[in-house]
Amino acid sequence: MRVSRLPLSPLKPAAVTIGSFDGVHVGHQQIIQRLTRYAQANDLSSVVVTFEPQPREFLSPENAPARLSSLTDKALRLAELGVDHLVVLPFNRRLRSLSADDFVRSVLIDRLNTQWLQVGDDFRFGADRKGNVDFLRNYAFDVTDLPSQRVDGERVSSTLIRQAIAENDFNRAATLLGESFALSGRVVYGRQLGRTIGVPTANILLPHHRLPTDGVFAVSSAIDGKTIHGVANLGPKPTVGDHRLWLETHFFDYDGHLYGRSFASSCISGCGALKHLITLTR
User: Fold this and answer.
1) 146 exposed, middle or buried (CB, 10 Å; 0-12, 13-18, 19+)?
2) Same-domain status, 29 and 72
3) Is residue 171 in a domain?
4) What are 104-113's pLDDT values in tens digits?
5) Which of 65, 122, 150, 203 is 20 to 30 A from 190 (CA-CA)?
6) What is the pTM of this model?
């Protein structure tokens, strides 16, 4: 899958969908599957358009929702689903001020060569969110809207998943996501204090986005073709005065070298409120 930011050269004729796709949950997956099937059947490139930062992070950062997935994780999941091209639009003052008509003409038509556009039934865009599905049908490409997917009678949404995670209901979150909620990144060198007391940890420094939960969790990870289990602390490291966001994981019965490697830890269950994973005696 190709990943691009605007400006970019005009693409081959494309089937396009637009959204934040945070978590790439089962509702998003339904949209993507329909997109890729249509693109393949009509010799079009399948294109997903998303935003970085997410609109609410730019418009009201103090009230922005916690993220379910980083841009990297989102891109990896979309690639797994067969998307040809991910276009990342920088959400800034210029994009915010674009009228709905200017967005359609300058982005969808001139840059993306859109022939078919699929959006959710509640899709809004453009300055003051004046663009909608009926507005889009005024242009020379086909438009289809897809009703929201429901699970157990509830509309699937990133908000619903955040709520499940905040309540440590990881089974419910997994049902809505289509897979376990996971955090990923590259292991970096820490202070190696845990190793001195026989509890080595793999330390991943997380992006500065808000997270949907914190605390201590039972986790599992796929490493070297095997599933290994452990316990992880998600949050700052107040014991050593570090207030950045970390995923600090101790794996049971594993002594391999993880520094510099990337992996994902899937949350299985919550073990309580934020506490020190390691208590150090000085």
Assistant:
1) middle
2) yes
3) no
4) 999 999 999 9
5) 65
6) 0.86
